[in-house]
Amino acid sequence: MTLNVEYESKIELNLDYKEIITQVVEKSLDFENCPYEAEVNVILTDNTEIQEINKEHRNIDAPTDVLSFPMIDYEKPADFSALEDEADYYFHPDTGELLLGDIIISVEKVMEQAREFGHSQKRELAFLTAHSMLHLMGYDHMEDEERLVMEEKQRQVLEALNIGRE
Binding of Zn(2+): at which residues (predicted)? Predict the structure, then answer.
């Protein structure tokens, strides 16, 4: 697996963010039975930058906690069976890894939401990473039924890593 993590905020998270993100990405891939080595890019930024990206890509002029940019159009969530038919498009030409996509997380939102929800920054960062990984694997939460599926999967990934609401 190739995991590129870039820290682009002047605001420091006082935790081992690379280790947390790595564990969640790996567990999410395992949990969804991804049969391939994968490449994921994660950027940790601030509210100003994520607001610009949110405005540009979603036409929402406000900061958000996490943005997901999946590279794959799944017929159904986490259905990896048809991807080899589009190997030139979905796989890195040099490494052969599945190009899942990009995750952008606001460090400020990690801190704010951890305080707001009464849990650790570690838990909030892990939650946002798990949430975004599910988006990269085709899940969504626009309908209640989809939202419930995503919430359960997020809970199971964090539980498997023993990351609770401390």
Answer: 131, 135, 141
